Amino acid sequence: MVNPQTSPDFGNGEIGGDNSWTPPVYGATGDGRPVTVSFGQGGRTGHTLIADGHVSGSEFYHRDADADEKGHDHYGPHGESFGDYGKYSG
Fold it and tell me: Residues annotated as region Disordered (predicted)?
């Protein structure tokens, strides 16, 4: 299995993800700003993990020891914040 944090293929949808999240992919907002996103599935359907820019796997999956900071922001199915770490300027 390829480690998504070091894979040169990160962002192409081929690596990362698990039962709750799709593999992260590179995309763009409606106004053309680049983002990296992962979409919830199963019990997380409707949730989104997102970060500004086309970031590396190590940046997207970053989590400090206390989980006070992550490399992405987390939004629920109605746009509510489940974790605003300042990684998406929306």
Answer: 1-34, 67-90
Distance between CA atoms of residues 43 and 53, nearest Å: 27
Q: Distance (Å, rounded) from C-alpha 50 to C-alpha 33?
A: 12
| Dist CA 69 CA 77 (whole Å) | 21
* Predicted confidence (pLDDT) per residue in 19-64, tens digit: 788 888 899 999 999 999 999 999 999 999 999 999 988 888 888 8
Containing H/E element for 52?
strand 48-52
Structure tokens at 85: 């770490």
Please tell me the distance from the alpha carbon of residue 58 to that of residue 79, in angstroms, as a whole number: 25
Hey, is 51 helix, strand or coil?
A: strand
51 closest CA partner among 11, 3, 1, 6:
11
